[in-house]
Every structure is written in C-alpha cells, then in structure tokens.
Amino acid sequence: QILYLKPPWTLANLLKCYKKHWMAVFGYVVPRNLLSTIECLSKHLYADKPFDSSTMHVLLQESKNLLHAFSCRSDYNGVLPQAYAEVTKLCETLREVRAALVEQDLSEDIMVLSENAACEKMEATVPSLQSTEEKELHPSFHVAQENRHQEIWSVLEGVWNTMNVYSVELFQKLDPSAVTMAAKATFEEAFLGLQKLLAAVKDIREGIGR
User: Fold this and answer.
1) Residue 116 or 203, more confident
2) Backbone dihedral region of 35: left (phi > 0), alpha (psi from -120 to 50 degrees) or beta?
3) CA–CA separation, 198 vs 153, rounded Å?
C-alpha cells in the first residue's frame, strides 16, 4: 500500500523504488553507502546518450556489488546467484573484447610503422646517381621527408600512450595507491619494449629488402 510504484516492475521502476524507499527500507538490509550504486545505475542505464566500454565496466562492477550485498541477506530462491553469475560472465566478455581492441590498435600502429620503414628502406637502396640528383630537388621534398619522420614518431607516441593508459587503469584496479609509483617504474620497461619493437621492425625491413 505504501510502495512508490506498484508491480509489475521494470528495471527503471525498481531503481526508482530503491531510491524512494532507501532510507526507510533498503538501507537497513544492505550498507547505506550503496545508494551511490543505485544512483550510478539509474543515471547511466537510462541516459539518452550511449556510453563507452569503460562506463560499461563500471556499471557491471556496481551491479556485482549490489547483488553481492543482497546475497548476504538471502539467495532469493537461487535467483540472485544466477544473476551474479550472468553479470560476472558479462564482465569476462567485456574484458576479452577490450583486450582484443587494444591488440588490434597496436597491430594497426605497428603495420603503419612497418610501411613507413619499408619506404625508407627503398629510398636507402636507390642508386648513388639518384642520391646526387636528390640534392638538387625542390625544398618541398625535404619537407615531405620531415613530415614522414614526424608521422613515424606520432605512431610510436600513439603506441606508448595506449600502453600507458591501460597500464595506469590496471594498476588503479589493483592498488590505487600504486599508480604514481607504477607510472614511473613502467617507463623503463616501456623503453625496453620499444627496443624490441625496433628490432622486429628492422627484421621486417631486411625481409622486404631481400
């Protein structure tokens, strides 16, 4: 008789009921600070604009927190464990998709870098007569060469930024207090990784030359 919205409920109705009756009812069943979880789910699930994979990850984690909190009271005839398992499965799927996208982005960056390296290899193997003529080329040619070098540097910078963003995100999940230290510690590792990448690109260039 006192319910804010009567059944049958949609998910939107349930979230509204949670917020309306939180202090009087649900706050006595689960920790009251979980109200922020309800507000987060309500805000994003029924927004007019789509959200990215990072927001999706947050929503799934918040859902798991809410389901886990209610599981301390009851399993609700087995429905709650099943729901928790499904949300966990979605988290794993999202993690696999995000990892695949990162790998794809890195592969595309390396491919572009390899193509530019191949162009430089071909330019380096032209006859010496052409090298002599190159000195008399229009200054715009040298500008184009400089732009190519900047493009290669941009690709490397993109690889580094991508690695850095996901490294920081990973360390934030594991230990928020370790983010600053981790960022400093991983620079040397990233430099060594780029050295290995350089060796791989060199092998590709030699293969193209053969």
Assistant:
1) 203
2) alpha
3) 12
Question: DSSP assignment, residue 27?
Answer: G
pLDDT in tens, 115-168: 665 556 555 555 544 455 444 555 555 555 566 667 777 677 777 777 777 777
In whole angstroms, how far apart are CA 44 and each of 15, 26, 32, 52, 68? Answer: 12, 21, 20, 11, 20
**DSSP-derived 3-state class of residue 73:** coil
Query: Does position 107 have pLDDT exceeding 80, yes or no?
Result: no
Query: Residue 162 CB: number of other CB atoms within 10 A?
Result: 14
Domain boundaries of the chain, sorted by first residue:
11-106, 148-209
DSSP 143-185: HHHHHHHHHHHHHHHHHHHHHHHHHHHHHHHH-GGGHHHHHHH
Beta carbons of 80 and 100 less than 8 angstroms apart: no
pTM summary value: 0.49
